[in-house]
């Protein structure tokens, strides 16, 4: 079977890898000159099942309202009064109900846990160095949090089969001695043992190399502009070809993994409820090792990710519902740096720091769409929001199983576009 994948971010490349494993010939088309140049480029680096959760959660509505009055809010909604943004926000609000949140969180965690298995499977066959840290990830709490919240989180992780434990302040300092000096009043921490971190773009590029070495074809600087569809009588619509600025491509099946652009590309063919959520990161070399964190950690108070990527730190966060612009805002980068410096002063070399912003392709419920569509040979793999790296290999494997008609390892209806069971 010949399959064209539109989008060479981490999701498209992981999909290509697993399709190839199942005997398909793959062609990957991307408007950029190399793999992982958009949202997969400089994300937070966390490959985490234990810390992944939908953002449409109880309490998010209050945050959206409060954010109107706070320039530096970690979550910021900038109303642009477009129909796309309004409908997405309305759908997201519904998903903030506690009952919806628990269903969505379980779906997201199941995918991320499965993705860890699929990543290990890739790693056992391919020696990919992507500056991986494997000593788990840590969430730190600077302020006291209710015991019921901690117990609830631990119970949830246990139900999902994720090994984690709660750490007292002293135990956090044993794992992270640098924090003892800078944040002596820290409250506690949560250590998720099997989660890891690594550079998503490096992984994507190396996996793409492996796909190419096995005969996969990559068309760079190629923007898909049109989709030609056969619609004859009562039969289901079927893609005949896709067209770029200068070429026409044909295949048996088409997987769209075009991130935040997927809804526009498929307009009129499939209704994809994905909207961009802008996020920021700063990457800087570690200057003083004994002042730097040993683990990748998430600061619950400032909602900042601090991931070790070899001898660099990746500091990430902020969620802006603000349209499709990707220009980094210097004030936001400074905010991330201030959060990191507050926890690990003097650990990184500020002169070597680089700032970046990207658009997370987010669904209202936070659960990705890994699915067939009403169009016979059209599939989508998108909507991974703030956890796309963490879910990448699981989504790639599930997509490959769906396209080739194999039994799936996890329940595909949870990620389906058309399934009434998804609701
Ligand atoms: C600040 C930030 C921090 C994050 N931190 C984490 C984290 O710690 N852990 C985690 O799991 N996730 C994280 N994420 C989320 C994660 O990065 C995304 O979910 C993931 O990268 C999405 O991958 P993708 O392949 O779907 O999209 P992309 O990487 O955006 O890939 C889509 C591709 O489609 C191509 N494309 C689009 N339109 C066309 C077209 N018309 N023709 C041809 N090609 C096209 C683009 O060029 C692009 O290469 C973070 C995101 C941000 C912004």
From TrEMBL:
Entry annotated with the keyword Membrane: no
Domain FAD dependent oxidoreductase: 3-401
Species this chain originates from: Collimonas arenae
Tree of life domain: Bacteria
Enzyme Commission code: 1.4.99.1
PANTHER family named among the record's database cross-references: D-AMINO ACID DEHYDROGENASE, SARCOSINE DEHYDROGENASE-RELATED
UniProt entry keywords in alphabetical sequence: Oxidoreductase
Gene3D superfamilies found in the cross-reference section: D-Amino Acid Oxidase, subunit A, domain 2, FAD/NAD(P)-binding domain
Annotated protein name in UniProt: D-amino acid dehydrogenase small subunit
GO cellular component assignments: cytoplasm; plasma membrane
GO terms under biological process: D-alanine catabolic process
GO MF entries: D-amino-acid dehydrogenase activity
Enzyme class of the recorded protein, top EC level: oxidoreductase
Similarity comment: Belongs to the DadA oxidoreductase family.
